[in-house]
Amino acid sequence: MSNTVTTKVYVVQDNIDTDQIIPAQYLTLVPTIEEEYEKLGSYAMAGLPDSLYPIRLVPEGQVKSAYGLIIGGRNFGCGSSREHAPIALGATGVHAVIAESFARIFFRNCVATGELYPYDTPVRLCEKVKTGDEATLDFDADTLTVNGKTYQLKPLGEVRPVIDAGGLFNYARKNGMISA
Q1: Under a CB-based contact definition with an 8 Å cutoff, are residues 116 and 89 in contact?
Q2: H or E element that contains 28
Q3: Is 73 a residue whose pLDDT tops 90?
Q4: Whole-angstrom Cα distance, residue 42 to residue 38?
Q5: Lowest mean pLDDT, pick from 78-82, 128-132, 158-162
Q6: Which one, of 53, 50, 44, 37, lies nearest residue 21 by Cα?
Q7: Does some domain include residue 179?
Q8: Fewer Cβ within 10 Å of end Cβ, the chain: N or C?
Q9: First-to-last CA distance in the chain?
């Protein structure tokens, strides 16, 4: 994995729940089947209200997003526990979610699936940047640079190698904890 990613950001506010990230009617899709994994991505963030988020993360009829980073407020990923939420975001090409705080289960699902890097920020970035701004996330320095300003993020610590490996099971196989 490259140590930095430069891409457009998609900005949301507080309390983005898993029903907004991936509405329940799409939970029948099986992420281990490649076509269904891609289709799952096409519905990522489809539960957001159009009145507040007129720009879609994934344009209608497409499976990939032009936005490789999501900037959120507080309590990102709250609501029901579903692995499909980080998987759907990862399927679109999103690399990381940077938020003021995460629901614990969403954070753990990011780590377990290896789909996304969930970065905590002490700064309310969702009010400092807008959808479409270009940003660079430096995974080694744990920084986000956007609009000429660099913000320090909370280091991922011991969860980073798990996400780097592609999730909990891949990490365990790679480190001889379970057989391949």
Answers
A1: yes
A2: none
A3: yes
A4: 7
A5: 78-82
A6: 44
A7: no
A8: C
A9: 22
What separation in angstroms does the CA of 76 have from each of 12, 34, 98, 120, 121?
Answer: 9, 27, 9, 10, 12
Q: Is residue 180 assigned to a domain?
A: no
Q: Please give the Cα distance from 13 to 114 (Å, whole number).
A: 24
- Mean pLDDT across the chain: 95
Residue 22 φ/ψ region, left for φ over 0, alpha for ψ in the -120 to 50 degree band, beta for the rest: beta
Tell me the C-alpha distance between 72 and 101, whole Å.
8
Range of the domain at 43: 4-174
73 and 52 Cβ atoms separated by less than 8 Å: no
In a domain, 148, yes or no: yes
DSSP string, 122-175: SS-GGGT--TT-EEEEETTTTEEEETTEEEE----GGGHHHHHTTSHHHHHHHT
Dihedral angle of Cα 92, 34, 111, 98, to the nearest 10 degrees: 0
pTM: 0.94
- Examine residue 37 and state whether it is found in any structural domain, yes or no: yes
Task: Count other Cβ atoms within 10 Å, centred on residue 41.
Answer: 25
Residues 112 and 170: their CA atoms lie apart, in Å, by 9
Domains in the chain, number: 1
Q: Confidence class of residue 1 from pLDDT cuts 50, 70 and 90? A: very low
